[in-house]
Design a protein that fits this description.
This protein is α/β, with parallel strands linked by helices and 271 residues long. The chain has helices spanning 2-41, 64-72, 99-109, 119-124, 126-134, 154-172, 188-196, 219-229, 243-258, and strands spanning 47-48, 85-92, 114-117, 138-141, 178-179, 185-186, 200-201, 235-239, 262-264. The strands form three sheets. Strands 2, 3, 4, 8 and 9 form a five-stranded parallel β-sheet that branches. A two-stranded antiparallel ribbon has the order 1-6. A two-stranded parallel ribbon has the order 5-7.
Length: 271
Amino acid sequence: MKDKRKISSICLSIVFLLLFTFFIIQANKDEELLQTSAELQLSNVKIGWGVKREKEHVQPDLGTKNKALMDKYKGIAMGNKDKKYVYLTFDEGYEAGYTPQILQTLKENEVKACFFLTAHFINTQEQLVKDMISGGHIVGNHTVNHKSMPDLEEDKLKSEVMDLHTAVYKKFGYEMKYLRPPKGEFSERTISYTNGLGYTTVMWSLAYDDWDENKQGREEYAKKKILDNIHPGAVILLHGNSKDNANILDTIIKEVRNMGYEFKSLNEFER
């Protein structure tokens, strides 16, 4: 009789355990469905980043919707308005021959920057990436192929971000955490999704038309654009394929400091 009761007790325990496991699995499935449903409801309207400049070194207008999305998803675009901190970032889709000069200038001036790189740069400029990391700079994710993120389905979006993430980790033992959307284009869907991948989106509050290699030899123009528009909390975007940027960087750093500003790393970002 005791044996029968013991067997019954064991059977009940097994049934209870199976039911408990089933409910846990079902709850997780329901949660995943809710997350997927929530993502599908997010807008995928493409947003092209831009700022409206102000005079007298006042912070620019990022646009109400843009700022709201950055705040909601804890993105980085512009820092504290009451502190004269600035953050230097470079976009590097490919190497045009100027990055070694840029890195040397940063070293001489003891400035730490963030370099947003594509797969092409990672695959063709391994030593420069090592130099960035060993120099204390941040390496950021600019995706594998530099495609507009709202145009991508979820699986492709994930591979564009995480394939580069994995490659950088395997090659350099470095784990990226900052992402700049290619072409400055994103949507609420994409920023929410990349947040879920562990990335902080980084936009900018100061930039100029420096990416066109046919528009170089304008060093005075470039210096004026940057220095006239520097402001507290500025996240500065420069392109590494610009000869002008390489040539004026030392002057820019010194002049910005003379204006009372301090260069900070994105890791020290203050809202």
